[in-house]
Design a protein that fits this description.
This protein is mainly α and 306 residues long. 79% of the residues lie in helices and 2% in strands. Strand 1 and strand 2 form a beta hairpin. The longest helix is centred in the first third of the chain and has 36 residues. The model has no long low-confidence stretch (mean pLDDT 85).
């Protein structure tokens, strides 16, 4: 355990030594969120208002601040879901740098088991990712709370942090396998550019997955990140949706909230079936175990002692 702990500490120190990369990892997501609030929020508000106007009398019950809070939280869910893809990937970049600089030769020459080496990289990256994405969640909630009530109690807030931990660990375990295939930082950076552009679409941050065909939804929901984003919706949005239902007082028999949940799904659709919260938690947990086993096997085959 001392060898494993020592390598993990070394990896953490090397990552956080590059403080500029750490700062921009957090700032990038927050800047995107602020830009969403400035430029996309109005479009969301207009769309929801048109739906309210289509139901006679419903607009008199559901308040504008409830719609605004829903839009803010929905946008924040997309940003946070994307961050739990890009941030873990950046936290794992130390693996490629070590390989590029031949530092892995020195590590492999030590009397440390290979599974301990690969797990030290994984543990350090997961801890770094949890810390950074947790900071993003904290900053985002602070911004939203400063604007008004977000209809979340302590249980919802703790649940959000729990999802962030699970999302960071699952993304780290998956990208660990990807990172082992890169031999240069330039190739890693190029892939990161593609990943950053595609992440929001795969998890449904920009366009709801419900707008795609069943086959496309299945492909997108194969990735644990899509399940994590849906879990975040359940934690962050259920409070304001319940408040909307109370405000409506049964005028629409709950159809407005139901339609919102249909557009931005609260369950994962895969292979013709829907996974609820429990099913998604099991799926993501199994994905972590499988990816961990694969990365240990891959590391043993890819990295040879010199």
């Amino acid at each position: 355990m001392k060898k494993f702990a020592g390598l993990t500490k070394r990896n953490l120190m090397v990552f956080f030594k590059d403080w500029q990369s750490v700062v921009f990892s957090v700032l990038t997501s927050m800047i995107v969120f602020v830009l969403y609030l400035l430029f996309l929020k109005g479009t969301f508000m207009e769309a929801f208002q048109s739906v309210l106007d289509a139901v006679p009398g419903l607009a008199d019950f559901i308040r504008e601040e409830e719609i605004e809070t829903y839009c803010d939280l929905l946008l924040f869910t997309g940003v946070l879901g994307s961050a739990m893809i890009t941030v873990p990937f950046q936290c794992l970049s130390i693996i490629v740098r070590d390989r590029e600089n031949k530092i892995d030769y020195d590590i492999l020459a030590t009397p440390v088991c290979r599974w301990q080496i690969v797990l030290s990289y994984f543990t350090a990256a997961a801890l770094s990712s949890v810390l950074l994405t947790g900071l993003i969640l904290t900053a985002g909630l602070a911004i939203l709370v400063s604007k008004g009530s977000i209809y979340m109690d302590a249980a919802h807030v703790m649940g959000a942090y729990g999802v962030v931990v699970l999302g960071s660990v699952s993304a780290t375990s998956l990208f660990m396998i990807v990172m082992l295939s890169f031999k240069s930082s330039s190739a890693c950076g190029a892939f990161f550019g593609i990943l950053s552009a595609a992440a929001g679409f795969v998890i449904g941050a920009y366009i709801p997955l419900s707008q795609f065909s069943e086959s496309v939804q299945t492909v997108c929901n194969i990735f644990p990140a899509s399940h994590i984003t849906i879990l975040l919706r359940n934690v962050l949005l259920n409070g304001v949706l319940s408040e909307m239902n109370r405000s409506a007082g049964g005028v629409d028999n709950g159809m407005f909230v139901y339609s919102l949940k249909e557009v931005f799904p609260f369950e994962a659709h895969m292979f013709g079936n829907n996974l609820d919260v429990s099913g998604m938690l099991v799926y993501v947990s199994l994905a972590v175990l499988v990816c961990t086993a694969v990365m240990i096997f891959t590391y043993a085959k890819t990295y040879k002692r010199k």
